[in-house]
Amino acid sequence: MSTKLRKKQAVASSEKQMMKGSKMLIEALKQEEVEVLFGYPGGAILPTFDEIHQDGIRHILARHEQGAVHAAEGYARVSKKPGVVVVTSGPGATNVITGIADAMMDSLPLVVFSGQVATSVIGTDAFQESDVMGLTMPITKHNYQVRDVNELPRIIKEAFHIATTGRPGPVLIDLPKDVSIETGLFDYNQEVNLPGYHPTIMPNKLQIRKLVEAVSSAKKPIILAGAGVLHAGASEQLLEYAEQQQIPIASTLLGLGAFPGDHELFLGMAGMHGTYPANMAIYESDLLISIGSRFDDRVTGNLEKFAPNAKIAHIDIDPAEIGKNVETQIPIVADAMEALKELINQNGVKGQNSLWNEELKHLKQEYPLWYKEDPEVIKPQQLIERIYEKTNGEAIVTTDVGQHQMWTAQFFKFKKPNRFVTSGGLGTMGFGFPAAIGAQLAEPKTPVIAFMGDAGFQMTLQELSLVQEMKLPIKLVIVNNSSLGMVRQWQQLFFEERYSNSLVPVQPDFVKLAEAYDIKGFRVDHVAHLDGAIEEMLAHDGPALIDFRVADKENVYPMVAPGKGLHEMIGVKPE
Amino acid sequence: MKRIITATVNNSSGVLNRVTGMLARRNYNIESITVGHTENPAISRMTFVVVVDNQRSIEQVIKQLNKQIDVLKVSDITDESIMSRELVLIKVFSCPQQRAEIAAVINPFRATIIDVGKESVTVQVTGDQQKVEALIDLLHPYGIKELARTGITAVKRGHKVTNAEERVVLIN
Lengths: 575, 172
Ligand SMILES: Cc1ncc(C[n+]2csc(CCOP(=O)(O)OP(=O)(O)O)c2C)c(N)n1
Hints:
The complex is a heterodimer.
Chain A lengths: L2 H10 L4 E4 H11 L4 E4 L6 H10 L2 E4 L3 H15 L3 E5 L3 H5 L1 H9 L4 E7 L15 H5 L5 E4 L6 H13 L5 E7 H5 L1 E4 L18 H13 L3 E5 L1 H5 L3 H11 L3 E3 L14 E4 L6 H9 L2 E5 L5 H4 L10 E6 L13 E4 L2 H11 L7 H13 L13 H11 L5 E4 L3 H9 L8 E2 L10 H11 L5 E6 H4 L6 H7 L4 E6 L4 H10 L15 H7 L3 E5 L5 H10 L4 E6 L9 E2 L8 E2 L5
Parallel strand pairs in A: 2-3, 2-4, 4-5, 5-7, 6-7, 9-10, 9-12, 10-11, 12-13, 13-14, 15-16, 15-17, 17-18, 18-20, 19-20
Antiparallel strand pairs in A: 1-8, 21-22
Helix pairs in contact in A: 1-2, 2-3, 2-8, 4-6, 4-19, 10-15, 12-15, 17-18, 17-24
Chain B lengths: L1 E9 L4 H11 L3 E9 L5 E9 L3 H13 L3 E6 L5 E12 L5 H8 L5 E5 L3 E8 L1 H11 L4 E6 L3 E4 L6 H9 L1
Antiparallel strand pairs in B: 1-3, 1-4, 2-3, 5-7, 5-8, 5-9, 6-7
The complex binds thiamine diphosphate.
């Protein structure tokens, strides 16, 4: 049934009716045009699952609640709609903690329903009781415990509103079992009324004018684009503005795709494993315009040495991000789209930065990302670069966390927004695979490729069941270096090669593992077979898991070592 | 530096937890917090005394407080013309012979003795921080057995004050 139709039916049946809490929940989800839920049943949430069954609303049964919440995150990142999660109390709720924290860090809109023990026994250490409100308070944008069934519609409406507006984020609703069974009045037509919550969308004109003037007098301007541009859907405006003013662009990890990766003004990713041109440009700039990025320490390196000569302008929808890490001269609280539109309208006098742009162009030519090929062994960078080429960069790409994640950020040039799904702020291993499931559900027709380390994949591989069940044509690329690669790299560089617990002597046979789930699996361990294998993988019209054996001691370069400034990169050129 | 921040918040369950949890997790140094209903029972008012290094930190405290959905309004009233008060109960060692002396010491502070025991008296004093601390200093030599402070609560004045009025504030 189309969502439009669903909504109509829901509206028709929602005219202030008496109904059970669990039914209210489903009705509210229909009003919010939710297409799919991710979750796992259990005692306290059974009434809701009974309603799910009776209604027929689509529910994806993950094999672990962590899988459900990461899938919801992947869905949210790609579809730009809220991901909805339904889990039981106690262990069900604690199993989604990692994903909620991840969504909080990366500003992903989630609405999470957790069952709870009955209100009469809350606080008595009842079976499967846990203080989910207390546990999730610091990792949600807001959370609710429903104490009265009549408040449920208002709470759900507020939850969706809070999760999806302003700076998006996860909202949790703790639903005691008795409340979901009780009957109350369902009225979903009330206006949301939250006097303490009014995100600022429109930029202050005076501040915009200040920025326009700053740009006009800048000789070395640079834009740092973050995920805020993607959340605002402002990629086109960013492109237009950058071209209008001829300002070079660097991106954060989560901002990749906000600006075309193959554009001549694009310098690449900034930060710890960013490109040398992007980092040097930030270091030397006289005007740094951050748009929807939060100056994370992985981006700034040592703050004392960060952009020492730059005037800082910061456009962010969350005022608390402005001035948090970096002192800001031109603060602009606004939605990135509105701010960019205003900047474009002002059509200010261009700065005198043609020399600077030339310099940066040379820097780009002089210091490309690099790796050394080997006649036999597949280099991980090579693997990712070849997949990029063979997909024309058109695929949706998810990653797990570690070296392969950084190599993907470096070598896969994202040209379009919302095509890159990765765990940035929390750096959650186990994210990449379930996130790919959510991404594929959001866009069933677009190819989805998940790049994963051999270690991180094993943290949530139970979701292979889900791929098998739904025959999702995801391509699972294991960048197998038989180690916790990123940990090993740090131990090599900063712990005198004492490889404590980072070399993995035993692995499952990933091919057999795939076959156990009725998924096509194969192994590639020689450069000669690389291209053929990639083609075979891409041509296969179902799910496939490929165990790519890659060089095991490769390091991610260039790199800003911890404590160093962005201009102090190591490994900028082949030794 | 010390700043006095007030916040009006929804009087919903867990709101104190939300606010104090956020302040602790963001590493802010809170000297005191007071909470109570306002004239509207659905809304509470909190008063914080926060110790910060610089102006930027206090801006962050205010922004982070504002970010909470249940927080309705936040103000830094330190530099405004305000009335701030704290209630303090001080149990002081005192033999019966010393009671008159203590009564004389506390009298200019409009403090009162609210309980008398065999070897101690309990003094109640209300005032701004300066006044309260001055009295505690004076009582120290007698030996303080127990001390309970409520923390500061404050409101803005209804009208602008002149210097002369400010002096009145100090002694009343
Ligand atoms: C849940 C979790 N535990 C631990 C870490 C720390 N960590 C970061 S990268 C990494 C190694 C990842 O190894 P692998 O998945 O094989 O990827 P590679 O770095 O080899 O590409 C570890 C352990 C983490 N990010 N997340």
